[in-house]
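Allow me, if you will, to draw on your knowledge of protein folds for a short while. Thank you for your consideration; the sequence and its C-alpha cells are set out here:
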Amino acid sequence: MRKYIIKRLIISAILLVFVAFIIYILMRSLPTSYIESLALQKSQLPNSKSYEEWLEQLSAAYGMDQDIIPGFITWCGNALRGNFGDSWYFTVPVIDKFNEVVWLSFIVGLITMILELGISIPLGILAARKQYSKTDYAISVLALSGISLPTFFFASLIKLVFCVKLGWFDLYGLVGRNHAQLSAAGQFWDKAQHLVLPIVTLTVISIGGLMRYTRTNMLEVLNADYIRTARAKGLSEKKVIYKHAFRNTLIPLVTIVGGSLPGLFSGALITETLFQIPGIGYTSYQAMVQGDIPFSMFYLVFLAVLTLLGNLITDILYAVVDPRVRIA
C-alpha cells in the first residue's frame, strides 16, 4: 500500500505540472489589455506611481514580461515556496483571501454531504427492497426530480417561496442587517439561518443521482446467488440486507463518495453566487469576472489538486471496503 501511494503521488505530481501548464497558457492567452487598464486605474489614485511603473510591476509580478515557458517556471518556483502573488481584485495575498473564504464553503459542503449520504443511501436501499412498489415509484420520482432540476432554477424557486412570499429568510448574503447588534449566539444563528437555503439547494440537487445509483447497485447485489443462499439458510431480512448486501453495495458507491470528499474545499460556485455567500466558489467567480489572474490561476490549480487527490482516496477506499481488493 505504501509503495502504491508513493507511486500514485509521483504520477499525480507529474500530471499536476502538465495541468498547471495548460492553465497557465490559458491565463496568458487572456487579453493583456486588462493589465493595461488596471495599471491605468491604479496610476490615477492619489500619490500613486505612474502608468508605466504600474504596468511594469504588474507584468513582472505574474511573469507577463517573460515568454510562456520561463514565466511558467517562475510561477512554479514561487508556488513551491507558497507564494501565489497578490490578488488583483481583492488586493490581498491570494493565500490570505483563500484561507478567509474556504472554510465557509467547507462547512456548507460537509453539512450537505452528511445530509446527502443520510438521505440518499437509506432511500436507495428502501427503493431496492420494495422494487416496483408505490414506495419505489415515489422515491424514483423524488430522485429524478432532483437530477432534472437545474441549480439556478431550484434556487430561484425556493427564494421566491421562502424569501419573497413567506419572508422567512433573506434573499442574499451571510448576515442580516442587525447582525452587529446581536449577541454571540444571535450572530451564530443569524449566519446559520442564511445558510439554510443554500444547503437545502445543494442537498436536493445532489441526492437524486446517489439515490438512483444506490438503488441500482442494491438491486444487482440482491439478485446475487449468495444473497439467495443467505435467505435460504434462514437469516433475517435485516441481516441479509445490512450485513451481506449493503457491504457489497458500498464498493461502487466509494467511487462517488471518495471522489466528492475533496470537493468539500472546492465550493459550490453557482449556489454561492446565487445566494451571494462569500465562500470560495463565489469568490472565485468574482475573481474570474474581474480578470483576477493570480487568484483564478491558484483556484484552478487547486481544483486540479483536489481531483487528483479524490482519485487517490477512491482507490485506497476500495481496499478498505472490500478486503478482496489488493493494491500491488
User: Anything to note?
Assistant: The chain has a mean pLDDT of 83. The chain is about 75% helix and 0% strand. Residues 262 and 306 are 5 Å apart (CA to CA). The chain has two domains: 2-80, 94-321.
